[in-house]
Structures are given as structure tokens and as C-alpha cells.
Amino acid sequence: MSFHVVVSQFFEWETSLVVRWPLPFIVGPLAFTFALVGYAVYDFKGLNQGNQTLEMFLPDEMQSLKDLHMLIKLFPPKDALRDSYSLFGSKFAYVIYEDHSQPQPNSVHILTIRSYFHRYPMLKISNVTIDNAVIFGNVTVKKSLTDKSGNAPIAHATAIRLVYVLEPDLKDDDWVRQFVVDTRRLQYPNASLFFSSSCSLPDEMERNGALLIPWIPWMVVVLLGFCMIVCSTSDAVRSQPFIGITSMLNASLAVVTACATLIILQYPFLHMILIMPFLVISIGTDNMFLMLKSWRLLENRCLNTDERFVEAITEVSVSLMITSLTDGLSFSVGSTSDFLAVRVFCTYCALSILYMFLFQMTFLMGIMVLHCRREVAGRHWLFMVKLSAEEADDSYLMRCFFRKLSIKKQRANEDSQFYEKVAKVLENRIAQLLVLLIYVAYLAASVNWILQFPLGLDLKTLTPDESFAADELRAQERLFTDYGAFCFAVIHTKDLHLHDAQIRFELLELYENLTSSAYASKGDFWLETYEKNFASDPAVPTIQKPKDFMRSLIRFLDTPAYKKYRSDIRFNATGHIESIKIIMRIRKRGPQNDAPRAAILRGRLERSGFPGFVYDTSFLIVDQQSVTVSNVIGNVVLAIFVMLLISILLIPRPASAFSIALSILSINIGVVGALSASGTRLDIISMITIVMSIGFSVDYATHVTFHYLIQRRDRLKKSLEVMVYPITQAALSTAIGVSILGVVPSYMIRTFVLTVVYVVAIGLLHSLLFLPVLLSVVVPSSEYLVPYSSHSHIVKDRRAPIESSRTKVSNSRMKCYRPEHIYAIPP
């Protein structure tokens, strides 16, 4: 027995239960949802918002992330400027003042003082070093006056940065946030202010979700209007707008139930979850269109209401299962990702789709049963009163709103002839050759854009457009390009003998080696200062034993000028040195230099033989790029494999399976190419959408292929007759619901909108043009799938039949696809 037969039998049995007792199936999901939401409110312990920082966009087991956690553990940040990895720990705020005015002449005395104190990148006075590289931006120096330490007088600088560092253990962020509020109000003539703080990036990322909330009511109104219009006809009896409303309510219940379930389980809740309702509700009407279309196809079948409904649902049972399975499983694949943000978002979506499918099989079906009975009884869709048949002298408005219209077979025949002409055109060899040329051009353009797909996460895209945090990041890249913050090397010294002069010499040699490239220069290494200014002092005893070195080091760290180095040495519980920190200065800031810097510094440390690691904040982005590519490829391959497995189970025919696989691959190539062409980056945001697009693309391929296979004659014509209308309706509802978010000024949200629109457009192009031509060419007439014959005629209706004159007959599934039956109802 084929799997599609098992699916059809299950739906036939389940639908017969709903038809017999609709009220329990209506009340049950509502009671379950209200009970779950009530418990979530009663036992509410707060949202588990997890880590709403950059870490949620990084893989769990990424090496640079592990190095960061180790660095913070060994050397807790004390100074936000010196310990620049404090982005994940300490509290700070700073403002960049960029002057756009022309340079003003100064007095000779001021120029003399400035030439002495304004040196770049460092100002050294005795044992005191002032780091001017993090203060002055867009600097021009007098290279002819460079001293032996590489510092030169500043000739011109257009920007200055003021930094405020708070205690790292300060738990209250009110001051930091108030700094942003007050600074935002400041305005200066001929100058620009760029500002940020330790709270700015997380707060701005959360604002993406806040931007979505005002648009939820608009999405609901627009989709309600669309569904009501699409589900209506010019016949006041056969119109079913309430079924469209119910499908929206069904999807909304699923979203609320899924969120309540995961909140009760204390599953993380991230700001990007607020995109999920728009997505799930938009695709939540797809199955409703299929069920309603199947109901209308059986208009002329001699069945009573309940038998007709059972058979209608059984007819599309495979399509219903395919839609829910593929969408749900594609998100389930994403829920196994190494990225927290991907995992959380896909888990919420997958659970919502599961609840939506269960509610469709119960709540939505129950409502449909009642409204379908209302239709067969000849009652008005709104006022529920019985309407009389139309009369010849009725006005147009009277016929549309207050009369039961007769079936127009002529219109049905005209529509059937239209699809027959379309099928003949698509089966023509010249037309097929033209379609092939169009497809080759489409594929070439898509591949060309894929090869230009920019890789990696850009921090500026995590915030809304025109965000002050993004503006500050751009200002840093523009004004502080030559010298950046610091990067770090951590050397584990547990097995090293630091009292040995040779070991210390090799460590200094490593420091020279790490800071001699174009991507890093000398920063601040305590051992270099110790050897130059302290150990060489004749008053310091000669070091021969470990105890001698420890005494000398303690005296060094007790010196006021060198106390800052205490945070660069990690002592264990027994007082021995466990690890040391080397601080280096970043050179040539910018995304194009991050990967070479990581490769050079890591390679030189590895070749030195010292145990440890090198870390810079840019390494997180570099590693994330490589992990993202491998993760995307892995998830895409796994998702396509799962989708193909489902398709083969439901459609076990080789040529058809090949057509489905080619269509899925082709649609996703087009989607990725379109994303690249629209300026989207290959990051975890697009990774979510690409995995999502695989599930959506399967719907288009499998629906058309399945209905093509179950036809014996006129296969292309009949499959188009059945599937064009509901596929187009579902695609439009999905696109309309999500497109509302296109006005939201956020890269993250814009990427979701573009992906859905591209999937819908490219999926429709494949399902209505490329795939029908492919099926007509590669699928032989001998490859046929026997449709399941419904046994709804044996279902005993325990109610008094509404139309007792009808006789119960058993018809094969194929009779419903005769032209005179398909378009019995005017559109």
C-alpha cells in the first residue's frame, strides 16, 4: 500500500469524525489554547531573553568565541579602552566629535604646546604612556619629526573621541542609557556627533522587534480583507468569507499556543521572534484554499453535505500533508543549527506550524463543516436566512446579495477550454524550446549573482536603518582606520619557567614577531617593560631561582607606574603564574583586513610553540563567516534531503522524483541569486530565510507533480485546472501578508520580506511554466499514480439529510476533474 493511500485513509477517517461531531473539534482547540495561555500567565516567571548580544548570532562551538570566554575568565576586563574585549562585560560610553570646519590659526605658544603633547599614536612622558590613537581620528602627522618610538606630531585631526568608563560590576545601566538620551539631543554647527555605549548594540537589536509591533494589526486587516474577497463569489450562498476569517484565526491561535508552550518551558525568547507571526499567519491560509477549492469541485456530485465534505478533504489530503510537513520539517532542520538565533527562531516557527496543522484538522474543519452545511441549505453567508432562486427580472445587486444563483456551465466550459489551450501551447516543441532558453537565462543570471554573494555578518545590519549605533560603527571605520583598538595573545605559562632568561627572551621575541606585520603593531606587554625598566636596574637582585623572579615581579607590580600590569598576569591559588596576556595594537582596520590579520597572528603564535591563543573581536566575524558557509551548506543539504524523502514517500515515481528535486534546487538557486542581487549578505539572517525557502519551494513542486501523476489523459490540462487557482491564492496571501513589513526600516526584516517575495515569485514561475514543461517532457505516460478512491458514501449521517432527494452514490476520484464539474461555480 502506497504512503499517499495511508495519508488519504487517515484524513478520510479523521474528517468523518469532525463531520459527525463538529462542536467538540471546534471547542477543544479553543479550550486548549485558553488553558495554555492562562497557565503561562498564571505561572509567568518572565521571558527567558537569553543572551541578546552579538553572541546569539554566533555559533555555539566557534573557536574564537571559546577564546573570548577563556580570556574574560582569566583576565576580567578592568579598563574598557585597554581591555577592548570588554564589549561583552564592562560598562562604557563614548562620543566621537567630528569637526567639519576649516582649520583656525593658533598662537605660537599653543602650537608649541600642541606639538609636544599631541603626538600620534602614543605620547610617552618618562614612564607614562598616553594612547592618542583611540582619541584622535582621521589624523595627519608630520612624518619628518617621527621619534625613535615611531610617534610623530599631529599636523591635523578632524575627530576626537571622549570615553567614559564605569566599573565593570555596575549592574545598573541607567546612567549608560541616559548618556545616549542626552547625547542624542546635542547639536553643534559644522560638526557631527557619533556615540555609542555598552548597551547600545543590544538595545538597538531589540528595537527591530519593537518596529514590528505596530504593523501586526495592519497585517491582520489586510489579510482578512484579502481572504474574505478571495473566498467570496458573486453568489451570496456559495460565498465563504467566514472560512477565510477562520483560517486567519486558526493561524493566530497556533502562534499564541506555540509561544505560550515555549514560554512555559522557559525556552529563550529573542526579539526576532516577533517576525514569526507575520510569516506563520501569511502561510496559514494555504491549506484553507486547497480545502475550499476541493469542496467547490464536488458541486455536482450526488452526495449529501457531510459525504461531500469528507470526500473533498480526502481529495486534497496528500496536498495538505505535503504543505504542513515540508514547511514544518524545513524549520525543524533549522532548529538544529549551531546558531542560537537560528535555533530559537526555527523552533518557534516549527512548533507554530505543528499547532496550525492540528488546529486545521480540528478547529478549521469544524467551522468549515458548519458553513458548508449553511451553503447546501441555501442560506445567506452573512444573514443566515434562506434565499430563493434568481429570477429573470432581478437586478444585478439583487442577484449578487439576495438570490441563490444557478450553476453556469457555459463559464465552466470556457475556462476548461482556456486551460486546454494553455496545455497545448506548453506541450508544443517550439514553445518548450523557448521555455528552455528562458530557463537557461534565469539559471545563468542566478549563478552569476550567487558567485558575488558577500559573506559574513556585518554588525551594522543587526540594527534598524539610521540607527545611531550603526552610524557610530561607520564613523569608526572611516575615522579610525590606521590604528584600531587592541588585540590580545594569551600564553599559558603553567609549564613554563619564567625565571629562565631564555624563556623570557623567547616570549619577547614572540611579541616582536606578532607585532611586526602590517596588521598589528606594538601595544603594551608587561614583560617588555619589566625587562627594560626594572630587571636591568642594578638595584634589582639577579634572578636565578623561581622565588627570585617572583619577588622581583611583585616589587615590579607594586610600583605605582606599573600597577596597571596586574590585570595582565593570572596567578593561580598557589601563587604561581598560570597565564599572561600580551596586548597588541590593531592596524589597518576594516572588514577586508580582518581575515588576513587572523591568519597571520594565529599562524605566528602556532609556529612559536607556546601554548595559548590570539584573540581580537574581529576574529568572531572572521570565524563566523567560515562557519556560516559550512552551516548553510549543511542545513540546505539536510533540508533538501528531508524534503525529497517526504516527496518520494508520497510520490514514489523516479521521473517525478527527479523533477521535484530539480525544481527544488532550481527555485532555491534563484532565491539565493535574487538575495545576492538585492544586496543581502550570506549571514545567519539569510541562512534562516534560505532554509525556510526550501520548505516553501517543495509545496509548489509536489502539488503540481502529484496532480499531474494521478491523471490518465490530458494530464497537463487537468493538473493546471486543479492547482493553478489555489496555488496562486496561497502565493498571493503569503506575499501580501509579509510584504506589509517592507516599509519597516530594518535589514533583518527586509531580508525576510525579500526572501518570501522571491520564493513566491520564483515558485509560481516554476509551478506554472518550468515544471509543467519538464513533466510533459520527462515523465512517461506509463508513470502513473493510482488515486485513492474515497469511501465517504459508507459514512452514515445520523442527522436528517438536508436534501433528502439526493441519492448516495460512489464515484471515483477522477470524475471530479471533468470540465463540467471543475467550473460549476462562477469565480
The proportion of residues in beta strands is: 5-15%
> Count of DSSP E strands?
12
Low-confidence stretches: 794-827
Overall pLDDT: 85
Structural class category:
alpha+beta
Shape: elongated
Q: Note the main sheet.
A: 5 strands, antiparallel
Oligomer: single chain
In DSSP terms (H or I, runs of 4 or more residues), the helix count works out at: 27
Span from first to last CA? Answer: 37 Å
Helicity, as a percent range: 55-70%
* Rg for CA atoms: 35 Å
Protein name: SSD domain-containing protein
Keywords: Membrane, Transmembrane, Transmembrane helix
Family: Belongs to the patched family.
Organism: Steinernema hermaphroditum
Describe the protein's architecture and organization:
This protein has 27 helices and twelve strands. It is an alpha+beta fold and 827 residues long. Among the domains are: 3-46 and 207-451 and 651-822, no CATH class; 91-197, no CATH class. The strands form three sheets. Strands 1, 2, 5, 6 and 7 form a five-stranded antiparallel beta sheet that branches. Strands 8, 9, 10, 11 and 12 form a five-stranded antiparallel beta sheet that branches. Strands 3-4 form a two-stranded antiparallel sheet. The protein starts with a helix and ends in a 5-residue tail after the last helix. 44% of the residues are buried. Mean pLDDT is 85; it is low at 794-827.
